[in-house]
Amino acid sequence: MPSALLRCAARELARLIASGEVSSAEVVELHLEQLEALKPLNALAYTDPAAVRREARQRDRQRAAGEALGPLHGVPFTVKDWLDVAGWPCAGAELKFRHRRPDQDASAVGRLRAAGGVVLGKTAVLAESEVYGRVHHPHDPRLSPGGSSSGEAVLIAACGSPLGLGSDSGGSIRQPAAYCGVAGLKPTPGRVPLTGHFPRINPLADPRTVIGPLARRVADLGLALKLIMGEDGHDPSAVPATLGDIPAPIEGLRVAYHHTLPDTAVDPQIVQAVRWAAQTLANAGCHVREEAPPGQTEAMRLTRQYWARPESSSWDEWQPDGAVSSLSADEVERHLFDWDVYRRRLLAFMHSADVLLLPVAENLAAPHGREGGVDFTAPYSLAGLPAVTVPVGRSPEGLPIGVQVVARAWREDVALGAAQVLEDAYAGAGSG
Asked: Exposed/middle/buried for 263, CB within 10 Å: 0-12, 13-18, 19+?
């Protein structure tokens, strides 16, 4: 049973702990041992085993005392080192902040803890950095896991963690999830508060970045989303938006799909995976057509212009990150205007599609230093649309193949519903 517990979904671990079939202390100990075994992957940034064990024992005492149990009671989870955990280091991938220890949890972290979750560790940011070193792909250490929620995707894929929190600006949850073979969710901006993200995110200046979950099962993404969503009284961009039943039924949905980009060579295995996913959704009762959204070449131009603007490392004072903008004031205004035009064009396309199905990247995992681009993911960050990455295949070499399911703003339930159908179909086809 111990090895089977490491492969369990977060929801199943919560059920086993609540029923008394296993203790939180046992589950946590197994994961701490697994993290030790996974050290060669260099995906873990920090853990405090003594503190983790204390928290797990406290969860067991609460259960024994008959206290009300949250939906993640006793379940360990990991946190990208761009999100604060009270008392633990959070360098934010910057050497100058390597001794920084916040005194409060990020809102999303605190909410998973309030649901009974146990923080297991902080995970490395970026596939390679001065702070964390090089993070290795869980299926082939010669390859990159993608970024920037690199350590999260690696540890979840390698059963070092059942659930994690990452962040995504242009593909930073979705790309490593696809490369490593796990599920990842980029929510609609404003769905999850950004409070406690480090470096600080100022939503008016950066409406792209979001906090979202990674897991081995799509259902765990939905569970985590329901726990971390909603306003917190600190982040003015967080709104009390409603969320439909998860997973949403998908019969009758209009699905557009595409698998190519101008001047980009897409791996034929990814093309085949997108076509399989499209046929699977058609078999499930969706109305499927092959059609690409407009402005595919515009997304990276707008993203590069965004990158040319300096950002502040503080919420309360203007502390630019050292970059000097290469854009004039008028060029910044033009960039924002063009960005709005682009958003409207993409949103107009989604009037005729409930779901958009496409690749996550043009390649399977690549050697270190040659990560794929974000041409397939950046458009939906710019437009503020939710997206789920779900594994649907493997290459002959054993590398995972994922696809991206995009829905309209605030319809994470629809994206998760379609992704759940794909996950079930892939498992039914013999993926295990």
From this structure: exposed
| Residues 6+ away with beta carbon under 8 Å from 45 | 81, 89, 91, 121, 122, 123, 124, 125, 131, 132, 151
For the stretch 58-62, contacts whose Cβ atoms lie closer than 8 Å and that sit 24 or more positions apart, written own/partner, are 59/17, 59/24, 59/116, 59/118, 60/23, 60/24, 60/25
Which SS3 state, helix, strand or coil, does residue 374 take? coil
Contacts (Cβ under 8 Å, ≥6 apart) of 278? 255, 257, 288, 290, 357
> C-alpha angle with apex 302: 176 to 146, nearest 5 degrees?
10
Mean pLDDT in runs of 10 for the chain (432 residues)? 88 98 98 98 98 98 97 98 98 92 98 98 96 96 95 98 98 98 98 96 92 98 98 96 95 97 93 98 98 91 90 81 80 94 96 98 88 90 98 96 98 98 91 52
The 8-class DSSP code of residue 79 comes to E
- Ranges of beta strands (E only) in 245-364 are 254-257, 287-290, 355-359
Give 292-295 contacts, CB < 8 A, sequence gap 24+.
Answer: 292/256, 292/258, 292/260, 293/256, 293/258, 293/345, 293/346, 293/349, 293/350, 293/356, 293/379, 294/345, 294/346, 294/349, 295/342, 295/345, 295/346, 295/379
Distance set, CA 310 to CA 30, 167, 334 (Å): 44, 19, 16
Coil, helix or strand at residue 323? coil
CA 296 – CA 203 distance, rounded (Å): 24
Q: Establish whether the linkage from the previous residue to 193 is cis, with ω within 30° of 0.
A: no
- Amino acid (1-letter code) at residue 84: D
Enumerate the H helices of 310-408 as residue ranges: 329-350, 378-382
